[in-house]
């Protein structure tokens, strides 16, 4: 497997950015293995799901970020679980944590959102974790698209744990408004759940049409990523994408 290209800024001001989407299961598993996987993937942005939400949650998330050479950008308990970590390469323009409508009897869901710049490139970012309920999940897919459309950016990405396969209605709804990066440029392995028996793709990264997708998939076989760490880190495999974001006009 050819490795994905490294992050860099192009002479025309466009930025090659690595994005990782990862359900970390509230850091209940092997956090050292988790940090090793993230570090080996060398991401500029990490779209986190199931970040810690309770006692000392900020300290726990900050410890993971520091162990991975990153910092907290936004999210966590304030977004009901989704979060975004970033490298120091990112310049933060603004952040907003969005709580989605609560359905009685179901978990509260939210979106961690930000607008960042990498040199001359400006990018909207959303991390999400959709509902286990089919109808609520479909509505949340529409809310995600509405949120991206209202961010006032030409180029944007969204990623997370959709709790649904690509043929499902919520996944398809998002893929109709954005591009499913794995479908555009397959790379690495496909299935994200469960590590003990990977047979479903329920985690994904999406991008607006102007973002060039250079490769996207589970980083099995990626340099520095050990399969033992992938299995020990959490109950999902991560999704890694390399994207070229055009310079802002």
From TrEMBL:
Molecular functions per Gene Ontology: endonuclease activity
Gene3D superfamilies attached to this UniProt entry: Endonuclease/exonuclease/phosphatase
Keyword field: DNA damage, DNA repair, Endonuclease, Hydrolase, Magnesium, Metal-binding, Nuclease
Cofactors demanded by this protein: Mg(2+); Mn(2+)
Protein name as annotated: Endonuclease/exonuclease/phosphatase family protein
Domain spans labelled Endonuclease/exonuclease/phosphatase: 20-236
């Amino acid at each position: 497997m050819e490795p994905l290209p490294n992050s860099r800024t192009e002479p025309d001001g466009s930025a090659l950015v690595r994005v990782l989407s990862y359900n970390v299961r509230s850091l209940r598993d092997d956090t050292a293995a988790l940090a090793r996987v993230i570090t080996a993937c060398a991401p500029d942005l990490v779209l986190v799901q199931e970040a810690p939400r309770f006692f000392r949650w900020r300290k726990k998330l900050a410890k993971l970020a520091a162990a991975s050479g990153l910092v907290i950008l936004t999210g966590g308990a304030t977004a009901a679980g989704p979060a975004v970590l970033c490298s120091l390469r990112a310049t933060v323009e603004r952040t907003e944590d969005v709580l989605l409508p609560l359905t009685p009897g179901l978990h509260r869901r939210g979106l961690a959102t930000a607008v960042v710049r990498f040199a001359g490139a400006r990018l909207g970012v959303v991390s999400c974790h959709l509902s286990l309920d089919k109808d609520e999940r479909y509505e949340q897919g529409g809310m995600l698209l509405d949120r991206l459309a209202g961010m006032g950016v030409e180029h944007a990405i969204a990623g997370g744990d959709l709790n649904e396969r690509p043929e499902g209605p919520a996944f398809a709804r998002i893929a109709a408004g954005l591009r499913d990066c794995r479908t555009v440029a397959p790379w690495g392995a496909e299935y994200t759940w469960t590590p003990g028996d990977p047979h479903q793709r329920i985690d994904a990264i999406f991008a607006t049409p102007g973002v060039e997708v250079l490769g996207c998939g589970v980083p099995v076989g990626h340099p520095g990523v050990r399969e033992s760490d992938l299995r020990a880190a959490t109950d999902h495999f991560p999704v890694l994408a390399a994207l070229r974001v055009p310079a802002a006009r």
